[in-house]
Fold each of these.
Amino acid sequence: MGDVAVHALRGVSLSLRAGELVVLLGPSGSGKSTLLNILGGLDTPTSGSVSYLDHDLSAADDAALTRYRREHVGFVFQFYNLIPSLTAAENVALVTEISRHPMSPRDALALVGLADRADHFPSQLSGGEQQRVAIARAIAKRPDVLLCDEPTGALDASTGILVLEALVRANRELGTLTAIITHNAVIASIADRVISLSNGRIASIVANAHKASPGSLSW
C-alpha cells in the first residue's frame, strides 16, 4: 500500500485433509480471509507454494485457477449473493449447469433442509434460509473443498446453528473437506481441527477429540 508493505500472511505452513472439518479462528486482521482466498484460488501468494493434489496453484495462470475453482471448490460467503429474480432451485441450478457431476438442485436443497422452499424467491426466505440456499448452491456440484467465510456472521445465534448444522451435514454426507473461518471461538467446538491465526501467522493447530454438535452451541 504505497510505501507500506502489509504482510497478510507470514510463514504459514499447513496441510488440510480430505473429509475433515476445519475451523480457521482469529480476530479481524489475523489473515484468515487471505488464507481462505489463497486456498480457493481467488488470490495467489507473493512467495511460497500452494498445492491441491497434483495441482500447483501458486504457479497456475488465471485459466487454470478458474478450472480449479469450477471443478473442485465451493464457496459460502457471509452475504448470500443470491439472484433476487430466481427461485431457490434456480439459484442452485446456476452452478449445476456448469458442473461435471452435480446433484439436482432439489436434492441439494433437501440436504440443507429446504426441500419445501425450492420454489420460493429470496425475498420470501429468511436470512438463515437464504444462507442455506447459498450452501446448497456451493455443494450441488459435489466439491472436493468447501470454503466458508464467516457463514454465520450476519445471523442471530439460533439461525446460525441451523446454518452450521447444514454445513456439518454436507461435510459428513459428501465427504467434502470443509474449512470455516470465524472470529467466534464457540463455533470452533464443531471442528475436527482448529487452526488459530494471529498477525498473519499460525498461533496453534489443535485437534478436537470431543466435537460438539451445532445444536449444543450457545453464544
Note: The mean pLDDT is 91.
Amino acid sequence: MKITLLVVGKTTNTALEAMISDYQKRLTHYVPFELRVLPELKNAKSLSFEQQKQAEGEMILKSIGPSSQVILLDEHGKEYRSVEFASWMEKQMSSGRDLVFVVGGPYGFSQEVYGRANGLISLSQMTFSHQMVRLVFVEQIYRAMTILRGEPYHHE
C-alpha cells in the first residue's frame, strides 16, 4: 500500500517546499509516500475556467491507477479532527489499496474527476492556497501516522 499526494503545478515558495520536503522524509519511516506533481497547463490564461478544469482533469485521471482509492481535497468534503483522520487512515490502509489524495488546480475538479473519486476531504471551512494545502496535508498524514503508532507528536 502506497500513499500518493497528487498535485497540479509545482510549489514555487522555497520555504514551503523545504517544509513539505521535511514531512515527506519523515513519512517514509511509516509508509511508502510520494508527492507527484503534474505540470501546470500551458497557455492557461487563454482557457476558460471550465476548459482548465477539463484539461487538468484529464491529466489527473491518467495519473491514477485503476484500483487506487481516490480522495479529493475539496471544500465540500468531510472534515476530520486529527485523531479521527488517523482512524480513517488506518481503515483505508488495512484495505491494501493504494491511496491517492488529489489537490486540484485553482478552479477545482472536472465532473469526470469527481466521478472517479471514492471520497472528499476538506481541511477546513477556510480557504488555503493550493501550495499551503500541500504542507498542511502532508503534515496531517505524518501526524496520523504518529497517532497510530502512539508516538508523542500529537497532544490532546
Note: Residues 106 and 130 are 7 Å apart (CA to CA).
Amino acid sequence: MFRFCMKMDTRFTFVGQTLTARPSGALWWAAAGVLAVADLHFGRSERLARRGGTLLPPYDTAETLARLTREVRALAPRTIVCLGDSFDDLAAANGLDAAARATVSDLAAGRRWIWVAGNHDPADPGFGGEAVETFHAGPLCFRHIAARQPAAGEVSGHYHPKLGVPTRAGHIRRPCFLWDGQRIVLPAFGTYTGGLSARDPALRALFPDGAEAILTGRRTVSVPVGLHQSA
C-alpha cells in the first residue's frame, strides 16, 4: 500500500540542509537563497518543428518563463541555478525572441545566475551569468547528469522523472523529485518535456536502495516507497 503525504510544498533535510520541493518542480534552498530548476528546454516546440517532428503550439518558452517568474517573485532568490538542458539545442538558444531574452534578463537582474552545461546546451548560451560544468555551494554539488558514484549532496536533472501511483480517485502520473541520503534528481521544469518512469532501470541504478518520490502538481505528494516496488 502507498502512504501519501500531501502538502502545498515539501520540506526535507538533505546532507544537513533544509530544502523545499516546490509544486512547480523547482528546488528551494532558503538558507542559501538558491533556487534550482532543471531541464527548461527553451525553444523545444521550434526545434521539433525545425527537425520535422510533432508540431506543437509555440508557446512553451513563454509558459516556462512565466512559471519561473512566479517562483522568483515568490521566493526572491539570491542565486538561480539552471541544471542543464536549459535550451533544446544551440539554434533554439540563438533563436529565442526578444521578449524571452528580456524576461531572462529581468529575472537575472541583481542576482547570481548559473547555467550548468547539459547534453543539449551550448557551452555558453550567451545570456550572461556563469556557464559551468558543475556548481558547488556548501555541501551541495549541482550538475546536469547524476554521477554513478556521487559524493553525498549531489543535485541533478536530465532524466525528467515521473511516477504513477494509484489513488482513490484513480491512477495519477506526475513529474517528481527523487531523493535519498546521497542525491536528488529534479523533475523537468520546462513545458513539453515529457518524462521517464521513476521505475526505469536507468533511475533504479541511481537509487539501488529505493528513493522517496515527491510528486509535483497543484500540491506536492510524498510517496515513501522503494523503486523496486511495482506501481
Note: The CA atoms of residues 7 and 220 lie 5 Å apart.
Amino acid sequence: MSHRADGVAAIVALAGTDLGRTEWRVVDQDRVQRFADATDDHQWIHTDPRRAAAGPFGAAIAHGYLTLSLVIPMFGELLAIDGVTASVNYGLNRVRFPSPVKVGDRIRLHAEVADATEVRGGAQLGVDFTVEIEHGAKPACVAQAVYRYYR
C-alpha cells in the first residue's frame, strides 16, 4: 500500500500527493471475453483474436471501458481510506484512451491527487489517473476521477 488516510482531515491533506504506481498486470483474452459478456459488447476487435490479428491494431484489444474499470482495483493498491462510513465514485471529469491495450499487454496505474477539499458531510478527491502500457509510447487511458468520502 502506497498511502493511507484516516478521516476527512487526512483525506484533504492529500492534495498534490503523487500516489505512485502499481505493479504491472496482464490483460488477457479471458478477462476481455468476460468483460464483453458482462457488457454485451462482443465487437470482433475484442473477442475474435484471429480476425483482430488482421485488423487495424494487429491483435485483439481490450475495451476502453475495461481499461477504465481496472482503475478501481489498481487505485486500491495505492490508497487506503479509513475513518469514513462510505466512499463513492462521484464521477469523471475527463477520460481519453490515447492507445489501445492489446491482449497480452501489461498495464499499471499512476495516480496523483489533483485536488482534495472538504465538502458537506465529508471530503472530495479529484485524482488524475494514467494507465500505462509496458513499453508503450502513449498511455492506454488518462482520466480524472472524483471520489467522495463521507463521515
Note: The longest strand covers residues 106-119.
